[in-house]
Design brief:
This protein is of the alpha+beta class.
Length: 319
């Protein structure tokens, strides 16, 4: 069931969010328009929000590389003939969203979750006590080696205290079966789901996503909820993840992900290094560093495996 006395969640401004991030040591640089550059992983920066697709100037890119000392910066742009689609962006802006408009299998899964779990926003202290199992199980299920209590604490103990970061949980009695990590800024929300493996048959993620879209889009009239980008990692479950996201209420928008490398790194952007990285992935398939590095390089060299197609693209290919 959904908590009838749910907490009212207020967004923070982009300025407040980025100011707090800087205070806790995160690299955040201003971008053009209503964008900013946010440190990601391994000396990289990503432009946020990810659905802003305007092309940044070469001057802005040089400034970000120089001021951040990052090895790579990334942003999204509209695909065209010279910049073909290489990723999907998942967003929901449907203010007429309702359960009865979803596919029948999704409706059943959401109803099962609503019968099984209690959905409510979770305060930081309780989350840090109860959230480790869903986090670790999720990271392990996707084949990564960072599903550990240490990684959970290192990531969330810092970010959970930024007022833009919130948690909504699916509770089974006193057990946090699953949770959504939320970033609530201005009139938009970004979600990342985590679920304990033993509770997956009751479909907690379906319930959590329904809760988030209904609360923020339908009730609070936020502009959009985003479910991130398709992974640059060369993973075997990409089709399944794509189907899940599009079936639970998100639109898949084609984008071109651009990666700009520091000049000192550019000599290593070649097929020989990609071969070596892919060989490393075969030897250490749970290494997130190797998987992301191989995917990033393959994307930059336009040597990614074929992307999953939208229904419209599949129809066009058949015709």
């Amino acid at each position: 069931m959904v908590d009838a006395d749910r907490e009212v969640i207020h967004s923070v401004s982009m300025e407040e969010y980025t100011s707090v991030q800087r205070r806790i040591g995160v690299v955040v640089l201003p971008g053009s328009g209503c964008t900013f550059w946010h440190s990601n992983e391994w000396c990289s920066l990503q432009r946020e929000p990810v659905w802003r697709l305007e092309e940044p100037s070469a001057k802005e890119i040089r400034r970000v590389l120089q001021e951040s000392r990052a090895w790579v910066v990334t942003y999204n742009r509209e695909p065209d003939e010279a910049h073909p689609q290489n990723a999907w962006l998942y967003v929901c802006e449907d203010h007429d969203y309702c359960l009865k408009r979803l596919p029948s299998a999704v409706r059943r899964n959401v109803k099962r979750a609503l019968r099984t779990f209690r959905f409510e926003f979770v305060d930081a202290e309780r989350f840090l006590e109860k959230g480790v199992v869903p986090f670790c199980d999720t990271r392990t299920r996707v084949g990564l080696s960072d599903g550990t209590p240490e990684k959970f604490r290192r990531y969330f103990e810092t970010n959970i205290h930024n007022p833009a970061h919130r948690i909504v949980g699916a509770w089974k009695d006193d057990t946090l079966a699953a949770f959504l990590s939320l970033l609530v800024v201005d009139d938009w929300v970004v979600i990342i789901p985590f679920a304990a493996t033993e509770h997956l048959p009751s479909r907690p993620n379906n319930g959590l996503i329904h809760f988030a879209i209904d609360y923020f889009i339908v009730q609070r009239k936020f502009r959009l909820v985003a479910y991130g980008l398709s992974s640059i990692q060369e993973i075997g479950k990409a089709d399944g993840l794509h189907r899940f996201k599009t079936h639970v209420g998100f639109e898949a928008r084609p984008v071109h992900r651009v990666f700009v490398f520091h000049p000192l790194l550019r000599p290593f952007i070649n097929s020989a290094v990609l071969w070596a990285l892919r060989a490393g992935v075969r030897l250490w398939p749970r290494s997130r560093v190797l998987r992301k590095a191989a995917g990033l390089l393959a994307t930059s060299l336009k040597k990614r495996p074929p992307q999953v197609k939208s229904k419209h693209q599949e129809q066009e290919s058949r015709e």
